[in-house]
Amino acid sequence: MRFTILYRDSAIGTVELPAGEFVAARLTPAAQYASIRAVVRRSTEVFLQLGLFPDALPDSMSSPLTVGNWRQALRDASRLHLGLANVHHHPIATRFVNLLEAPDDSGVITLVSFDRGSSRPSVRSVRNNPTGVAAASADPLVDRQSAGEHR
């Protein structure tokens, strides 16, 4: 089904998402995507530098991971508050909408977790719920590393 990804109520692109609760597909960016591209790229770099996909990290990516740049990139991404709308422009309840920009310039991947009527609040109804890239709760780990605690 076709959806529109929204940032500050402006369409930043469209995506054709398969059925499911947690899905991913390639974004077709609109011109407005340029307004958030730098945030998406930097937070994607941090995500890749965490070691989850080490072979995907090209040599051309910027500085090595530090707690400071990790925290700032994820904080910036969490402030995007991306939303999802259907073809009739009605908001769709989600747990999160994330974007990852492929390092080889092969496009932007959209990750969506739909809120299918659970008791959890939707991203659209909770203003400070993290969205954007790396919506998983990263702050506790950052705080532990800052305090010298390592897993």
Low-pLDDT segments: 118-151
Rg, Cα atoms, Å: 15 Å
Strands side by side in the biggest sheet: 4-1-2-3-6-5
What is the helical fraction, as a range of percent?
Answer: 10-25%
Strand content: 25-35%
> What is the helix/strand order?
EEEHHEEEH
How would the global form be characterised?
globular
Q: Main β-sheet, in a few words?
A: 6 strands, antiparallel
User: What is the number of domains?
Assistant: 1
Number of strands: 6
- Structural class designation: alpha+beta
Mean pLDDT: 74
| Separate helix tally | 3
Distance between the termini: 40 Å
In brief, what are we looking at here?
24% of the residues lie in helices and 26% in strands.
What does this protein look like?
There is one protein chain. The protein is an alpha+beta fold. The chain is 24% helix and 26% strand. A six-stranded antiparallel sheet has the order 4-1-2-3-6-5. The radius of gyration is 15 Å and the shape is globular. The N and C termini lie far apart (40 Å).
How is the topology of this model organized?
Blueprint: E1 2-7, E2 10-16, E3 22-29, H1 37-52, H2 67-78, E4 83-85, E5 94-101, E6 108-114, H3 139-146
Antiparallel strand pairs: 1-2, 1-4, 2-3, 3-6, 5-6
Helix pairs in contact: 1-2
